[in-house]
Design brief:
Blueprint: E1 2-5, E2 9-13, E3 19-23, E4 30-33, E5 35-37, E6 41-43, E7 49-52, E8 58-63
Antiparallel strand pairs: 1-2, 2-3, 4-8, 5-6, 7-8
């Protein structure tokens, strides 16, 4: 199944239950994200720098 939100975000649910998201980002923009593991732990991407979120956790920071 694929869901498109305003043509910008593509959410795919694979047959095995895994999810993947495709999002178009513009050069010069920054994007904060993280991964919620087992519906409990918030994990940052090891290859990105981090930034404090408004919720007091760390987010991964991707600068294009």
């Amino acid at each position: 199944m694929t869901v498109s939100l305003k043509g910008i975000v593509m959410l795919m649910i694979k047959k095995n239950g895994d999810y993947s998201i495709t999002k178009i980002l513009n050069s010069g923009d920054s994007f904060q994200f993280g991964y919620k593991v087992n519906n409990q732990e918030w994990v940052c991407e090891e290859e990105c720098s981090t930034i404090c979120s408004p919720l007091g956790t760390l987010n991964s920071l991707l600068v294009l």
